[in-house]
Every structure is written in structure tokens, then in C-alpha cells.
Amino acid sequence: MRPRLRGGRVAVRPATCEPHVLAETEQPFVLPLRLAVGDGEDVVVDLPLDIGQAAQLQELLGRVCTG
To answer: What pLDDT, in 10s, does the model give residues 24-66?
Structure first.
């Protein structure tokens, strides 16, 4: 039986803080999410983010990567 998630927290951390990597990233906030409904096969979808959420993640990167 698969574990069932009924709420919780998501931890987000950058894979790198290298300035050249961050500058060249085309899709910095693509968050893959693995889903399963009932006994069906797992499906991976991208978690949709609106402009405000992407801005919050950009601000987080600024704080985390500058120490």
C-alpha cells in the first residue's frame, strides 16, 4: 500500500548557489510532483506556480544564496 499524504510541509532548497548556474537556468522553478490516484500508475506533473509564488522563490534564493 502506498503512503497517503493528507497535508504537510514541503522543504525547498536550491541545488546550487553558483552564480553562473543560476544566471543560465531557463526554468528555475519547475517542481516535479509524483501523483497516483487509487491503484493507478504514478504520474509526474509539474507543480503550477503563479507569478507571486515564483517571486517568493526568487526572494528565497536571494536570501539563501547570499548567506
So the answer is: 887 788 888 888 888 889 899 988 889 999 899 889 888 888 8
Q: Where are the domains of the chain?
A: 30-66
Closest CA to 46 of 35, 36, 61: 35
Identify the helix (H) or strand (E) that includes residue 56: helix 51-66
Q: Is the pTM of this model over 0.70?
A: no
One-letter amino acid of 32: P
Q: Which residues, at least 6 apart from 33, have a Cβ–Cβ distance to it below 8 Å?
A: 44, 45, 46, 47
What are 43's three cell numbers? Answer: 504520474
Which of 29, 22, 23, 33 is closest to 54 using CA atoms? Answer: 29
- 43 has which bridge partners? 35
14, amino acid identity:
P
CB 44 within 8 A of CB 32: yes
